[in-house]
Amino acid sequence: MSLPDFLLETSRVLIGLGLAVFVGVPLVWLVGRMTRGENEEKRKIFLGGEKKEEKNRIFLEWEEKGEEREKLGRGRFVAAGGLLLGLLLEVQVMGSALPPRHVWRAGVLFLLVASLVSSVMIVLPRERYYREKSLTFEENLRQPWVSRADAARRRAAIIDLYGFLLALAAIVLG
Known about the structure:
This protein is mostly helical. It is built from five helices and no strands.
């Protein structure tokens, strides 16, 4: 196997692993939520109530707390790095012989990485700041800061949904 062939295969593996993280994790979460939903329905009927928080969940609002969310964030960063490296290797090896379909996929992958950066480096730190700020106030003054943090969390979830759809588009173009 020649070096260009090896680099091309490496780029395909890196892109595939990156897309597996961006598509696989939300799908596993959704399947888990759907299968767990049946048990929760039975529990709600048994307990005779429904939690308001459960109704207001957004599509990709992760349920992990603290350390688990950080691990997922690190995994997404590694996946984004793999996508970017794989994309650069593919463009470097194939050069101008890159098919138009791969050019479109490269654009979609760039938008996917940009959405991750926007979510993790802009929106989520803002949410963290609002949550920390709300803890410094008394109970009656916290509500505006908590509502700002919730709005930032919803914005991050929408950006994550956008990234999920871009990852699916990259697979289709793939």
